[in-house]
Design goal:
- The chain is an alpha/beta fold and 467 residues long.
- It is 32% helix and 26% strand.
- The strands form five sheets. It has a five-stranded mixed β-barrel with strand order 1-2-3-4-5. Strands 7-14-8-9-10 form a five-stranded parallel β-sheet. Strands 17-18-21-20-19 form a five-stranded antiparallel β-sheet, with helices on both faces.
- Helix 1 runs parallel beside helix 9, helix 3 runs antiparallel to helix 4 and helix 3 runs parallel beside helix 6.
- The mean pLDDT is 97.
């Protein structure tokens, strides 16, 4: 079979790339090693974790928040199999949706393992029977995503020591959960099981949570999580995990060295990040360049050093985010079709889907200081927002960073309920090079949480009204 494009992997980057290329008139095929489409995100990542976050939040609301609103109910009980079943339905609905979209857009699907034999040739080992076939194509896009980063000396068995995948299917709520890594994945999944009754301790090598996010935001968010009952051991490294007994014994010590402490747990979640997944693709044999971290090296048009072979998503440099991969997939497809595809990497939002949420886009204060850029700050607390006060959801704040000379918004950071939705007006503003005054003079409906975004923009020039 001969194609204009073969995409390897149907995660968010891969399936979006394939669909966009087909929309633009290219003959497209995808190769997927899983039995279902959607990659890590839809199968064992973004989607199932959000389902569990939603359900566990409602469980905690019913248990603790209802009385303050005058609602009397009996204590909620967890039906664990049904709880996990709710997550499974979300996964099934989304993966079937991708299957439908590929079919609708006339993309040929090959379920199997792909190996690139040369530019223009992909060998597929079929999942069904192991039969091998060779597909010919003008272009190849590698969209194979990422895998769980391993903690040296610690074996993940997905029972006592789990990755994010195992943390989605724990057979019962652990009495004590140790989370190794205070990044997005660890905090989200730690939040799920804490809400259901687990004692959660987060161990982080660095002296802060959420590395890479704005420092003030990270400190404020840590205080909120501690108030909710999550414990932190920062500046601490894991030196061993003993699973020989009934539970798990985690050996930790200060990152700089010092006395060893033993933390006992029922389950340990290793969430120290992810690494590019390229195993079995045959990249070394055909000379495709990778960097020190195993990521595929590409030029500004997503092309590798081998003409006709491209790469997008988690397998290349940049934030490992589904929406970043999707935008790269669209841009790459448009370039292959002769159009001007482009991704603005300066305006890619990031969200932590805890309660409250944390969201950011653009530069942090630390980055602006490091780059020597003069800036002004506008902040507004949800404690002074009418809707937040009415809903008893006042934790957090909005923070706007603007260029001191031009007033152009350079970054926005939010801790608060639905922060992941609120951040996008800032992203749109920044995409158009807007100023804090543009945002401050845009009428916002009352009462809404988004008024806090407007007030933070007004605070850049010290003219916020409600504080």
């Amino acid at each position: 079979m001969s194609y204009d494009l073969i995409v390897i992997g149907t995660g968010p980057g891969g399936y979006v790339c394939a669909i966009r290329a087909s929309q633009l008139g290219l003959k497209v095929a995808v190769v997927e090693k899983r039995a279902t489409h959607g990659g890590t995100c839809l199968n064992v990542g973004c989607i199932p974790s959000k389902a569990l976050l939603h359900a566990s939040h409602l469980f905690e609301e019913a248990a603790h928040a209802f009385p303050s609103m005058g609602i009397t109910v009996s204590a909620p009980k967890l039906d664990h199999p049904a709880f996990l079943g709710f997550k499974d339905k979300a996964v099934e609905g989304n993966t079937k949706g991708v299957e439908f979209l590929l079919k609708k857009n006339k993309v040929d699907v090959h379920f199997g393992t792909a190996k690139i034999l040369a530019a223009g040739k992909v060998e597929v080992t079929a999942n069904a029977d192991g039969a091998k076939s060779v597909l010919e194509t003008k272009n190849i896009v590698i969209a194979t995503g990422s895998d769980v980063a391993q903690l040296p000396g610690v074996t993940i068995d997905e029972e006592k020591v789990v990755s994010s995948t195992g943390a989605l299917v724990l057979p019962k709520v652990p009495g004590k959960l140790v989370v190794v890594g205070a990044g997005v994945i660890g905090l989200e999944l730690g939040s799920v099981w804490r809400r259901l009754g687990a004692q959660v301790t987060v161990v982080e090598f660095l002296d802060r949570i959420l590395p890479g996010m704005d420092g003030e935001v990270a400190k404020g968010f840590q205080r909120i999580l501690e108030k909710q009952g999550m414990a932190f051991k920062l500046g601490t490294k894991v030196t061993g995990v003993d699973t020989a007994g009934k539970g798990v014994k985690v050996s930790v010590e200060p990152a700089a060295g010092g006395a060893v402490e033993i933390i006992e747990a029922d389950v340990v979640l290793v969430a120290i990040g992810r690494v590019a997944y390229t195993q079995g693709l045959g990249l070394a044999e055909i000379g495709v360049e990778t960097d020190k971290r195993g990521r595929v090296v590409i030029d500004p048009h997503f092309q590798t050093n081998v003409p006709g072979i491209f790469a997008i998503g988690d397998v290349v440099a940049g934030p490992m985010l589904a929406h970043k991969a999707e935008d790269e997939g669209v841009a790459c497809a448009e370039i292959l079709a002769g159009k001007a595809g482009h991704v603005n990497y300066g305006v890619i939002p990031g969200v932590v889907y805890t309660f409250p949420e944390v969201a950011s886009v653009g530069k942090t204060e630390e980055e602006l200081k490091a780059e020597g850029i003069a800036y002004t700050v506008g902040k507004f607390p949800f404690l002074a927002n009418g809707r937040a006060k009415a809903n008893n959801e006042t934790d957090g704040f909005v923070k706007i960073l603007a260029d001191a000379a031009t007033d152009k918004v350079l970054g926005a950071h939010i801790i608060g309920v639905e922060a992941g939705e609120l951040i996008h007006e800032c992203a749109v503003l920044m995409e158009f090079g807007g100023s804090s005054e543009d945002l401050a003079r845009t009428c916002h409906a009352h009462p809404t949480r988004s008024e806090a975004v407007k007030e933070a923009a007004m605070a850049v020039e010290k003219r916020a009204i409600h504080m």
